Amino acid sequence: MPVDFECNGCGLSVSVGWYHDHSFSNGFGSSTLAVCERCGTQHRVEHAIDVSLWSSSSTFFEVAIVEVPRPARLMVANGIREVRGLSPLEAIRLLDSPPIVWRCSVVGALVTAFESVPASCPRCQSLLEEKGGWVS
User: Fold this and answer.
1) DSSP-assigned beta bridge partners for residue 111
2) CA torsion, ordered 65, 68, 71, 72, to nearest 10 deg
3) What pLDDT is stored for residue 2 in this prediction?
4) What is the mean pLDDT of each run of 10 residues along the chain (136 residues)?
5) pTM of the model
6) How far, in Å, CA of 41 to CA of 83, rounded?
7) Which of 10, 24, 115, 123 has the maximum number of C-beta atoms within 10 A of its C-beta?
8) Neighbours of 75 (CB within 10 A)
9) Comparing C-alpha atoms, which of 103, 112, 86, 101 is closest to residue 16?
């Protein structure tokens, strides 16, 4: 069950937790909502369905970047350069031809739950207030 949080200081809103889909037509059976503890960016990891066994595959997944909003292009290009060891031109070419399979080398930055509540905001270190949860 995902839980929604909002920062009292900067207004950052994030959700963390897991939920299942009600339609499997897109090839995914569930999603996990995560937030970066460093910058507060919200992420959704979709878990693919193993159609050969028709069960949710929870042992392996990769993140694929399918779209990058214009304001985030520089940050994402720099991340791609760092992770993949690419030149700026190579990173931009890759960014211009999604989807990009992302194998992040930063360990421990994404969290799917906060260890203590209230938690600290990743952006301003104020308190994140729990606003409620929801069930899919």
Assistant:
1) 35
2) 10
3) 92
4) 92 90 71 82 76 47 66 83 85 79 52 81 90 82
5) 0.57
6) 18
7) 123
8) 12
9) 112
